[in-house]
């Protein structure tokens, strides 16, 4: 049987028919063919260059912080690192390219302000990075979708996050810092920072706490207790005094619990810190819960009597009802609180005890509330923070049966009226006191000073008083302040051992500034050949992309600025120099 190919074609040449063009005709036809231009990747390259042409470190950043002094300290550290990396911190949100919003999760109103700020930033087409306790505790909230997040223990990486955010990327860093399985207090204490007040250093001695209060959302963000080593805290205080600071605030979620996770305690830390405080400078203790101060009352009384420590302690009671305290899981009874207050009032004459009270906690009866009213009436606290209860999502208290809103408001109003019915400072009129001047009043009419008991004293706004210990005669008393008249024949005393930094100046860079300047001078000499080299490479399509992939901006626009940290600054720029010399010698010379 013949195959399918048999007899049809005897030779391959038979496939060419007579009607096909000859080779000569095909050659002639080529002259009339218009070649189609080859599609190059120019469009893709231009898009890549446009997206990559954002140079991190040249933008303006506005930062807003809500909440406690611990959160304010975190904000100061983040601002310092950003400024050290070349970003410009601005107080004008409208001119900023990016908003860094550092949130507080204690109460609903604070989170509402935070959420509204995010919405306002997006309406103004601003880049947004969020930080603080709200995104740490609830990163999956709808209004946080697509936003970059800096966790409360990741503030040392704020520059990385902002770098990516200005490029349009979303980064979330929410992990915990650990060493050998042990949770650390957080970011290093020696990071650059910009103090909101150059005269005041805020030091967080630990993060988290040992409690599990049923109303607290902060626990979800800050976690369990993690303390910084004493040596690191002492070194931070020492550095602060060398930068002109004259007042230190110790802060945390519970200073009284300090050290329980690392085998030490609060009094041990305080005695070490007192040794570093210059004459005339002062130390202020932060909030401590009753359970963890009870066993240290004797030592704490001695420390609070020290001339360089304010006789001031913030001890939140929250309620005077044992039933309510049990529902809150506060781990103490009202007698424990009374013992702390009575002991310190006896051993530290004139001490200021500040406290907090929550009105309308779930299950609080009228009888429970009246016990709290009687406590305030008995002690007449000069500083009292009254808070209407707000159920925070995800907390056990949010699932309890709630007190009606109108009852909560009425109790809050009643307690506030009681607080404003007495004047705690009237007996101070006529006293002569030494006060430390550190701030300006809100109305900008006075300087704000504090006496030994951390009572606010308004003094005349004279430039020579700022940052000084002065002697005043008290001539007027208000609900929250005293007014003092400087004693004529007394001279202001300067407690600072160095000139304070200027407002907005970055702390923590002074010891390395000479090295940085030296590197910058050397690199500046390389700018001209680098510019010429870039012009040569610009003729090829890969030049700018290659430079940027290596982390190098065109013309090294950021060459005089530290990148993320001083260490990375030096390493990166040495690499740049060696790279250019190598490329110039082996490529361009060819």
TrEMBL record:
<feature type="transmembrane region" description="Helical">
    <location>
        <begin position="569"/>
        <end position="588"/>
    </location>
</feature>
<keyword id="KW-1133">Transmembrane helix</keyword>
<dbReference type="GO" id="GO:0046872">
    <property type="term" value="F:metal ion binding"/>
</dbReference>
<comment type="similarity">
    <text>Belongs to the methylthiotransferase family. CDKAL1 subfamily.</text>
</comment>
<keyword id="KW-0812">Transmembrane</keyword>
<dbReference type="Pfam" id="PF00919">
    <property type="entry name" value="UPF0004"/>
</dbReference>
<dbReference type="GO" id="GO:0051539">
    <property type="term" value="F:4 iron, 4 sulfur cluster binding"/>
</dbReference>
<dbReference type="InterPro" id="IPR058240">
    <property type="entry name" value="rSAM_sf"/>
</dbReference>
<comment type="function">
    <text>Catalyzes the methylthiolation of N6-threonylcarbamoyladenosine (t(6)A), leading to the formation of 2-methylthio-N6-threonylcarbamoyladenosine (ms(2)t(6)A) at position 37 in tRNAs that read codons beginning with adenine.</text>
</comment>
<feature type="domain" description="MTTase N-terminal">
    <location>
        <begin position="59"/>
        <end position="167"/>
    </location>
</feature>
<dbReference type="GO" id="GO:0035598">
    <property type="term" value="F:tRNA (N(6)-L-threonylcarbamoyladenosine(37)-C(2))-methylthiotransferase activity"/>
</dbReference>
<keyword id="KW-0472">Membrane</keyword>
<dbReference type="InterPro" id="IPR006638">
    <property type="entry name" value="Elp3/MiaA/NifB-like_rSAM"/>
</dbReference>
<dbReference type="InterPro" id="IPR005839">
    <property type="entry name" value="Methylthiotransferase"/>
</dbReference>
<dbReference type="InterPro" id="IPR006466">
    <property type="entry name" value="MiaB-like_arc_euk"/>
</dbReference>
<dbReference type="Pfam" id="PF04055">
    <property type="entry name" value="Radical_SAM"/>
</dbReference>
<dbReference type="InterPro" id="IPR038135">
    <property type="entry name" value="Methylthiotransferase_N_sf"/>
</dbReference>
<feature type="domain" description="TRAM">
    <location>
        <begin position="426"/>
        <end position="488"/>
    </location>
</feature>
<feature type="domain" description="Radical SAM core">
    <location>
        <begin position="195"/>
        <end position="426"/>
    </location>
</feature>
<keyword id="KW-0411">Iron-sulfur</keyword>
<dbReference type="InterPro" id="IPR013848">
    <property type="entry name" value="Methylthiotransferase_N"/>
</dbReference>
<dbReference type="InterPro" id="IPR020612">
    <property type="entry name" value="Methylthiotransferase_CS"/>
</dbReference>
<keyword id="KW-0479">Metal-binding</keyword>
<keyword id="KW-0949">S-adenosyl-L-methionine</keyword>
<keyword id="KW-0808">Transferase</keyword>
<keyword id="KW-0004">4Fe-4S</keyword>
<keyword id="KW-0819">tRNA processing</keyword>
<dbReference type="InterPro" id="IPR023404">
    <property type="entry name" value="rSAM_horseshoe"/>
</dbReference>
<keyword id="KW-0408">Iron</keyword>
<protein>
    <recommendedName>
        <fullName>tRNA-t(6)A37 methylthiotransferase</fullName>
        <ecNumber>2.8.4.5</ecNumber>
    </recommendedName>
</protein>
<dbReference type="GO" id="GO:0005789">
    <property type="term" value="C:endoplasmic reticulum membrane"/>
</dbReference>
<dbReference type="InterPro" id="IPR007197">
    <property type="entry name" value="rSAM"/>
</dbReference>
<keyword id="KW-0256">Endoplasmic reticulum</keyword>
<dbReference type="InterPro" id="IPR002792">
    <property type="entry name" value="TRAM_dom"/>
</dbReference>
């Amino acid at each position: 049987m013949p195959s399918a190919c048999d007899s049809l074609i005897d030779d391959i040449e038979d496939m060419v028919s007579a009607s096909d063009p000859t080779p000569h005709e095909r050659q002639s036809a080529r002259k009339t063919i218009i070649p189609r231009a080859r599609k190059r990747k120019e469009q893709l390259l231009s898009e890549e260059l446009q997206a990559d042409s954002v140079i991190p470190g040249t933008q303006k950043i506005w930062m807003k912080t809500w909440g406690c002094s611990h959160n304010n300290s975190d904000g100061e550290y983040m601002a310092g690192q950003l400024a050290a990396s070349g970003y410009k911190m601005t107080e004008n949100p409208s001119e900023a390219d990016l908003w860094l919003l550092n949130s507080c999760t204690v109460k609903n109103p604070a989170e509402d302000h935070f959420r509204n700020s995010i919405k306002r930033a997006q309406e103004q087409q601003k880049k947004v990075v969020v930080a603080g306790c709200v995104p740490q505790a609830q990163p999956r909230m709808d209004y946080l979708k697509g936003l970059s997040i800096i966790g409360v223990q990741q503030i040392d990486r704020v520059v990385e996050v902002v770098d990516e955010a200005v490029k349009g990327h979303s980064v979330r860093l929410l992990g915990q810092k650990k060493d050998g399985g042990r949770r650390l207090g957080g970011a290093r204490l020696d990071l650059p920072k910009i103090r909101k007040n150059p005269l005041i250093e805020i030091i967080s001695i630990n993060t988290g706490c040992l409690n599990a209060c049923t109303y607290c959302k902060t626990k979800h963000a800050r976690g369990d207790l993690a303390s910084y080593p004493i040596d690191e805290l002492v070194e931070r205080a020492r550095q602060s005094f060398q930068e002109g600071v004259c007042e230190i605030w110790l802060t945390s979620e519970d200073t009284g619990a300090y050290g329980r996770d690392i085998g030490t305690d609060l009094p041990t830390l305080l005695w070490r810190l007192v040794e570093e405080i210059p004459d005339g400078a002062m130390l202020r203790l932060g909030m401590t819960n009753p359970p963890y101060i009870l066993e240290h009352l004797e030592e704490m009384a001695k420390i609070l009597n020290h001339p360089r420590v304010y006789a001031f302690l913030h001890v939140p009671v929250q309620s005077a009802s044992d039933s309510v305290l049990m529902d809150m899981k506060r781990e103490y009874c009202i007698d424990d609180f009374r013992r702390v207050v009575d002991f310190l009032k006896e051993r530290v004459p004139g001490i200021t005890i500040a406290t907090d009270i929550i009105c309308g906690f779930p299950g609080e009866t009228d009888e429970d509330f009246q016990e709290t009213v009687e406590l305030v009436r008995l002690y007449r606290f000069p500083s009292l923070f009254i808070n209407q209860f707000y159920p925070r999502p995800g907390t056990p208290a949010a699932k309890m049966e709630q007190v009606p809103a109108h009852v909560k408001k009425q109790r809050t109003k009643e307690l506030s009226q009681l607080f404003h019915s007495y004047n705690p400072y009237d007996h101070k009129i006529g006293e002569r006191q030494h006060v430390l001047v550190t701030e300006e009043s809100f109305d900008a009419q006075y300087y704000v000073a504090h006496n030994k008991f951390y009572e606010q004293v308004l003094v005349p706004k004279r430039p020579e008083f700022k940052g000084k210990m002065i002697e005043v005669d008290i001539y007027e008393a208000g609900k929250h302040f005293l007014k003092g008249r400087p004693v004529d024949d007394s001279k202001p005393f300067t407690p600072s051992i160095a000139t304070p930094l200027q407002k907005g100046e970055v702390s923590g860079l002074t010891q390395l500034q000479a090295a940085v300047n030296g590197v910058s001078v050397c690199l500046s000499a390389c700018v001209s050949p680098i510019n010429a080299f870039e012009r040569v490479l610009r003729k090829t399509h890969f030049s700018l992309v290659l430079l940027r992939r290596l982390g190098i901006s065109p013309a090294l626009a950021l060459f005089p600025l530290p990148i993320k940290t001083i260490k990375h600054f030096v390493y990166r720029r040495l690499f740049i120099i060696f790279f250019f010399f190598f490329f110039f010698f082996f490529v361009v010379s060819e």
